[in-house]
Amino acid sequence: MTREPTPLMQQYREIKSQHPGAILFFRMGDFYEMFYDDAELAARVLGLTLTSRNNGGAAEVPLAGVPVKAGHEYLRRLVQQGYRVAVCEQVEDPRLAKGVVRREVIETVTPGAAFSDDLLESDRHNYMCALLELGGVIGIAAADVSIGTFRLIVCDQGDVDDVIARLSPREIIVPRALLHNGTGERLRTANALVTEREPWEFDPVLARDELVRRFRVAGLDGLGISSQHDAALGAAGALLRYLSDLQPSGMPHLMRPSVESTGHTMPLDEMTRRNLELTESLRGGAELPNGRSDRERSGTLLGVLDRTLTPMGARKLREWILAPLLDRAEIDARLDAVGALKEHADVQLALAEALDGVRDVERLAAKAAAGRATPRDLGGLRDSLARLPNVEAVLRDVEPAGMLSTIVTRWDACSEIVDLLSRHLVDRPPLAIGSGNDEGATIRGGVDRELDELRALRDGGRDAIAQIQAAERSRTGIASLKVGYNKVFGYFIEVTNANKHLIPADYQRRQTLTGAERYVTPALKEYEERVLTATERIEERERELFEKLRRATGDEIMRLQAVAVQVATLDVLLAFAVVASREGYVRPEMTDEFALNIVAGRHPVVERMMSRETFIPNDVSLTADARMIILTGPNMAGKSTILRQVGLIVLLAQIGSFVPATRATIGIVDRLFTRVGASDNLVRGQSTFMVEMAETSAILHTATSRSLVLLDEIGRGTSTYDGVSIAWAVSEHVHDKIGCKTIFATHYHELTQLADELGALRNYNVAVREVGDEVLFLHRLQPGPADRSYGIEVGRLAGLPDAVIRRARAVLRSFEGDDLVRRLSSSPSEGPAQLSLFGPSTHPVIDRLKDVRTEEMTPLAALQLLDELAGQARS
Ligand code: ADP
């Protein structure tokens, strides 16, 4: 006979059914229990022991539990591995409950909605994104609840990947149907937890009402949101609904949404971000189990630039690197500011000193608003804010150039908030309220009369207890008698066994130790009662006062977030100035013209890996009538380095940084494309060559004449004939049809002949010098094609056995008489008639073909012609 499940399990099932996508932490006394699949998953992921519980019926229920005390740690591990955890607490006192204790889910923690420091990385945003496709465009709503940012973005289908990559969200919300089409598939690989929600939640009309209500505005126009943002609006609605489901007790605070058009900054596709090693190095590093990688920042542009001093600055820097600007005035505003700061080493020092020690104001403020800040958090906020006047003082001494003037104008030292916090909080507030002793105090004395009185009462009791020791010593004559305290027995009098016989009759024994006995007396108990009651009430009162303070601070979140943005911006500009001073960068001259001109440019990362003198600077110039460079030279000569260096210099300039060169004029580019080397996309299950072609194709489809295209070794992944042909055709297309600034590094010498055909193409090579059998890499860029590829010399340098090298030389010599292009493009008069692959054709078959009018031919005539031509070709 199967019996009904127990009432407890019924309750469990009910709650679980409302949180199907989450692991349910079901509070039972001192444990969070997990049942069924959750238990099995947790046992696997967390290494817990799986047990079972009898459910009152025949079935045993799998069960795994974690102690409440360690609950957060287990939760953190689950969330970091991409799981959602719903925390279900007992919401009534079990002693008072009739029947099963009432339980409720008080919050659901997910990777995208995390607040606690150990779930967040200080130097990057923690975005949750919602996506909606509507009317042919994609709307994206992005929120970082840990700081309250809320952004709406509308973009074309083709740009989604770039936008998502830039935000790198931890979690993405999509309407249920979306996952069945291609976008959904791609999202699954974006390293984010993908959460499906019901399609109706993405309704823009519902969202409109919700936003109006939540941000207390009359209409959305004031927020810059119009009907063209409907897709983003619908996404925002779903995002807000999801967030409030996760936090039933009250949604975290979000700032008013900022609307962004993607035209404002330069989209950077994944290959460009990777190839230029902007924030992650290509040279590996293990993937963490949560999908984040711990790739070294050294070896990246971020690593070179990151001299920021605050977590807000670090996040902003990463954001800027991934979103170069397109507008000259905006870029110049940053450059002006960097210039002003770079002038004065003393200002740099003073600002650094003032900013150092400013903690994560953005996240602390958001925590206060969400009711999660600890006393120590508010203390940290106060101490950080208290440094702001110093920052401002230094700033006022600098010429308010460009963006600095905006920062100064918008500066708000938040002095009232500092006052409020300083007045209430002790100098070093504890992690939690009521650690039970004086050091644990949160609220200062003199703030609240009631609190002061309670403390006096408690201290009076303690004094009285201290006096009891003296009184009892003289009453009993036991000099070694002492009064002590422990958590279990409270206050006690301790007497050694030797003196046991001397104790008075009113002593009551409480505890026996090896060498002593512990007693209490009625008087001792009375004072203890007073002390403990007072302590309890002190804690309660402190909690009340702290709550009030936290709310008052949380209410100021808009101000706090606004100043945090200014601090972050200043921090990045300062970092740019410091890097410029230390590394010898110059201010680039930004223009809306086409030309790009770099004098003595250096690779910002590579030059740091060697001594400055060892790095060879190079000039690169791309103008309308010399806009394409074919770059040849042996392996290891430095082709890739130059290619990337040009890309990085342009990117640096467009994020507002100075650049590693002695002079640079930068015609602002609308997009930057970099395809370097054969990347290891094999994990995606595509062949390298296929990936290479797909990436090349994406560039050819997207680049405009204002783009900068950097290609390295197109066509390498296939046979030489194929490869040269593709590279040749790609070059022609880029040169003729797109007309953008291009550098094409290749080991196909054949391509250098393109210069004869394409007017705006120039050959360059990276110089090497042969000394005897040796090759000396000069790393110097010079006009003209490389004479050959020196692969064998490089092989020798790499340690190939001498015998192999000798044999290779011999084989090469036999090939050299048979040069591919020379053979292919040789004219008929020089030898047997050959089809020229690249040069103009003079073959009679071709001439005849040119005159053919296929549309006027019958199938039979066509067949006859084909037969004739075939015969002619064979003869
Ligand atoms: P390629 O692409 O021609 O095979 P790389 O650009 O990868 O060559 O450069 C090979 C190595 O040469 C780099 O790792 C670097 O150490 C060195 N190198 C490249 N360019 C320079 C330079 N301008 N000055 C000094 N060393 C350089």
Structure, described:
- The strands form 5 sheets. Strands 3-4-2-1-5-6 form a 6-stranded mixed β-sheet, sandwiched between helices.
- It is 42% helix and 18% strand.
- It has 6 domains: 7-109, 3-Layer(aba) Sandwich (MutS, DNA mismatch repair protein, domain I), CATH 3.40.1170.10; 122-262, Nucleotidyltransferase, domain 5, CATH 3.30.420; 285-414 and 556-583, MutS, DNA mismatch repair protein, Chain A, domain 3; 449-521, MutS, DNA mismatch repair protein, Chain A, domain 3 (Orthogonal Bundle); 589-601 and 610-817, P-loop containing nucleotide triphosphate hydrolases (Rossmann fold); 844-874.
- A hairpin with a 2-residue loop joins strand 1 (23-28) and strand 2 (31-35).
- It has 875 residues and is of the alpha/beta class.
- It starts with 6 loop residues before the first helix and ends with a helix.
- The chain has 28 helices and 26 strands.
- The structure holds adenosine-5'-diphosphate.
- Residues 606, 614-616, 633, 635-641, 779 line the site of adenosine-5'-diphosphate.
Supply the key terms.
28 helices, 875 residues, six-stranded mixed β-sheet, single chain, elongated, alpha/beta, MutS, DNA mismatch repair protein, domain I, 6 domains, Nucleotidyltransferase, domain 5, binds adenosine-5'-diphosphate, 26 strands
